[in-house]
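pls design
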């Protein structure tokens, strides 16, 4: 779906309606350019995946939360955050994604959901899915993300290692 947005990112907002992730993290400091660049990239109709990489503690999750805030403010985008920090297998990652979809969209998904079933439960329209902490399941996660992208527009993966 084409986006019609202009990035005028401002920092320091912590009270937007965006995500639980933003409420758990400290304010974003010194990442104005990264925030503007990533938000502008996601506003493009030809961008469907962005990956933020870097060593632990540099603020990847906080940047993703700020981008989610900005995308929500600019586009009325629905944001779903998936915490993958505890996932070590593809099955655990898939369950975490399914649980996030259930939590964010109020739908029912079976205990043994597959990617197609999860994707079908995500509502039409602009959805930003943030996969946080996915270092442990990168290979299997890449396949799941590819399949999700065949159904929907945007995924931002703040800690996927290149």
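designed seq:
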């Amino acid at each position: 779906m084409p986006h019609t947005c202009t990035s005028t990112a401002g920092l320091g907002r912590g009270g937007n309606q965006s995500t639980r992730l933003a409420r758990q993290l400290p304010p974003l400091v010194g990442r104005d350019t990264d925030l503007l660049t990533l938000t502008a990239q996601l506003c493009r109709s030809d961008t469907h995946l962005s990956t933020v990489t870097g060593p632990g503690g540099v603020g990847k999750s906080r940047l993703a939360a700020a981008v989610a805030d900005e995308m929500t403010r600019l586009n009325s985008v629905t944001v779903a955050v998936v915490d993958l920090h505890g996932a070590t297998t593809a099955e655990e990652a898939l369950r975490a994604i399914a649980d996030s979809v259930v939590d964010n969209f109020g739908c029912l998904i079976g205990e043994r959901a597959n990617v197609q079933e999860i994707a079908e439960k995500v509502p039409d329209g602009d959805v930003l899915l943030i996969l946080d902490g996915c270092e442990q399941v990168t290979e299997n996660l890449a396949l799941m993300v590819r399949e999700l992208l065949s159904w929907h527009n945007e995924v931002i993966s703040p800690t996927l290692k290149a």
